[in-house]
Amino acid sequence: MTTLRPFTCDDLFKFNNINLDPLTETYGIPFYLQYLAHWPEYFIVAEAPGGELMGYIMGKAEGSVAREEWHGHVTALSVAPEFRRLGLAAKLMEMLEEISERKGGFFVDLFVRVSNQVAVNMYKRLGSTACTGRSSSITQPATENRTKTLTT
Amino acid sequence: MAARGHVQDPNDRRLRPIYDYLDNGNNKMAIQQADKLLKKHKDLHCAKVLKAIGLQRTGKQDEAFTLAQEVATLEPTDDNSLQALTILYREMHRPELVAKLYEAAVKKVPLSEEYHSHLFMAYARVGEYKKMQQAGMALYKIVPKNPYYFWSVMSLVMQAISAQDEKLAQTMFLPLAERMVEKMVKEEKIEAEAEVQLYFMILERLGKCVEALDVIRGPLGEKLTSELQSRENKCMMLYQRLQRWPECNALAHKLLLKNPDDWQFYPSYFDSLFHLIDQSWSPPEEGEHCSEGAVHHTVAEVVRFVEERIKGEDGKESRSLRGPYLARLELIHRLRERGCPEESLLGDPLELMVQFFGKFGDKPCCITDLKIYLHLLSPDQHVQFVNRLSEAVPLGERGEEGFAFPDDTKALQRHLCVCQLSRALGLHHALDVDGKLRLIAELKAHYRHGLKFGKNALKTELQFSDMYCLMAAHVYIDLWKETGDENMVWQGLGVLQEGLSHSASNAQFKLLLLLLYCHLGAFEPVVDLYSSLDAKHVQHDTIGFLLTRYAESLGQFAAASQSCNFSLRFFHSNQKDTSEYIIQAYKYGAFEKIPEFIALRNRLNQSLHFAQVRTERMLLDLFLEADIVLSLEESVKAMSLSAEEDDIPWDNMRDNRDLTVFTSWDPKERELTDEHRRQSLEEESVWLRIRSLTLRLLASLAGSGHTPSQQNSEIANENGVGDKSSILSGLLSQLNQTLQTASQIAEKRIQYPFLGPPSTRLAPALSSGSCQCQAAALQLSVHLQELDTVGLDESTELQTQICNAFKSLVVQLQEILNKCKGDLLDMKEGKLKTWPSLLENLIFFVETVCIVLWMASHCAKILRPLKTSLQKKKKKKKKDANTALPVVVCGFQELTGSLQDLLTQALEHIKGQETGITALKLASLSLDEYPQDEASFMKAAMDKVQSSYLRSLQEAGDLLKKRAETIKNLKI
Q: Ranges for the N-acetyltransferase domain (chain A) (predicted)?
């Protein structure tokens, strides 16, 4: 039982249970506003009936259309500890992939910290099972210090 | 003309090095290079602007501004200068000047799409909606592109949103916006999704739901494709507003068929059913039920639908969804609310919840799911319910201690869930002390046993059994609050420290540790705990209160300054940041986000926490530095603090605190309520008002110094003094009123849940007497002003009055100081006990002494010239042998003497405490009754508290010593 809806500014004041996780980055307000202004449909939050935020995905569209590299990018995907093991992250990924496809994206990519084994495994699992036609590629950065890292 | 189009503009080449220097932060070189260039090319305006940027960035704001205005008055039209000026004005926080710049530019180059668009954006940055509307249309006339037209439409919507007069919005701005869109619709010129979205926004705001529905369901609605289910969601919202229950019902169950886990549609589905029943709706004899298809208008149909969804989940091979199962409970809840007998069709809630637990008990969210339906059980079923659940938890053999443990993480999660539900049912709270202690032993045993499942967990992962540990701490807190036995809190701290050692990134452990240390009066350990939470940006607004509530009141001034700074830095960047993205939202056509961004900006600007840190930061700076580093007058000036100005939005204060950040499984009757939230906000506001008035009164004190030229220009000054004294008396009467409100609030002794909002300093400030003493000191300034005007000769009565006030201040200060006396930390019968309120009172004493000393210093400034002139007069009349000092001067000397005594007393007390606490041998505490590792975690917590007390004492002592130094300057 989950309500999936667009992320709004007011959610910034309620997402502590998700963001007080060591691998989830809390960005400056401008960063969120940039996504909300430019790619609002790629920013989805899951809400429980009690109003608690369960998790969210934040993404964007980028790349060259001419070179068939226009694609969706996942910037952040995070689920609060108490709402894990429900397949929520997979559901959110699925939604983002659908939106990306509607927008003509050829694939969806993301970065993940190499050390974030749980996330790496999840994406691998999703890549091999959930994504048949679509290609969901995981780009692993060479170093830990990459700024664009994805966290779950 | 624009430099961009050209391949080789010589000016570009000349300016390049300056740009590079600026980009690299080498402002000095940028200025030099610009000067060099300007010698050769006097008319290269852009070089001047770039130089101005360099000057601005090296702190020479005035020079920069003059230089920029030189160029601006020439009304430049070259791209380079315009862009550079835009950057400069933005850095100067003067966005309105950018608009002026482009207004001039479009006049000279009326057909430039680029400049018109810059002008639009410049208006957007400052929220000039009407001008935006015109600029948008002007753009559209030059280049008929749809976005420009709709920028103009959106600007009308913004005029409607920002209009004070709702009538104006409804009768003028919105209808005009609607007509503008209709025109485009008629001409079939609608192109983009954003345009339809905007049309919808306008109709919705006009309350034209029928029209909005036609748009969404019609061909225009087909453009709404970005967001998933956008059309369906909008239709649902409109059906509800229009009370079209058949459609609402039909659409809801259609969507639930598609996704039976989409929770938002269950409430709509059930609500619509009840409305249909209330209206005795029946389907038409032939044809479709409604435009959305079949309607379920009886309870039986709805029950069947929900049961079918559940069957669907039961029969699935993949993971079952929780939605349908919970929908059944939700339906029971709603039927019961209505008193519908059909509730029984769905089954017994207890059985259903047991069944739910059977299916989802191994999910961490099971507790959150079931918690909201526990009221469906009658109190006499609670124990039975828990027993039934326990039966469904597979545990191994009972061990030595009498506990049976789970064999895998799924069983662990189930067992944990039963514990959480028991707590939520109030079963933990009903236990007596021994029962609670046994419960704690069990929770700790399960916690430690469960660690074996997470042996290979990464540092960033939580342990499977962490929540047992947290719950054990909660029960310790219950015991502490119930019995007052401080050993309970030491053990609670111990178990949390132990938990943190196994699960270094558990935010809940850190938060609760932080709160407990604060309650014990120890702020030092909090600094590291909070910083390890890595709270950033907006989190400073939502959980920053945890730091700022305690840092200063517990005497850790350096940490308090730092905590305020974290928050202030965040808030100050907000204004500038948001405007940029409002502009982006126009560019990308995210129209619905524009009001949202503006609301966000307001929410942050009106934040309670923002107002608090602003005020407390200034007070803190004064306490720490005024009359020590700089004089009070200079300090007030440096803060550009003024008595007249009140920048706190009292009527629109937003409480952005996240008061549910602490995990809690407390039963409903112990949970945070809306009433608690309201009371807490009220209390915070009153305390903030006291602090803000104190600050403004100090500003007024600093601004009302003795003006020697007074007699010469009596008339001219009369107004000035009159104004000042009326402001002063206005502030004082506000302060007195607020203190009255405060004492009414304090009398209520509101108790918030332990994990809810912390109480403010208000009640202890009143009971220590510091509020009253501070107010009395500030009140004195009125009499002193009077004395300043009347002089010493004919003011015996006034002087006596002032002297009495002096005496009373000394008595009050002594009383506050008496309330600090006693041992902060003591050890009796092998037990450690803290007295944090003594520390809190000591800090109240420190703050109050500061204020009294400033008042004394102000007094000295007034008395000195009066005394001098008196002496002059006396010299003339030598015969008069009565050389006794005026009463007020004697009284003042007495005051300074007493203040000296008080400070000496306080410093001795602090010194005594420091010696006492240092000498405490925590090692000699009898912690033998605890297992060794537990004892060592408890001991570590005690060490932290001890060390923190010493630090607080030291900071308070250091400040008092500095204050004592200032008494020397009070000689007259």
A: 2-151
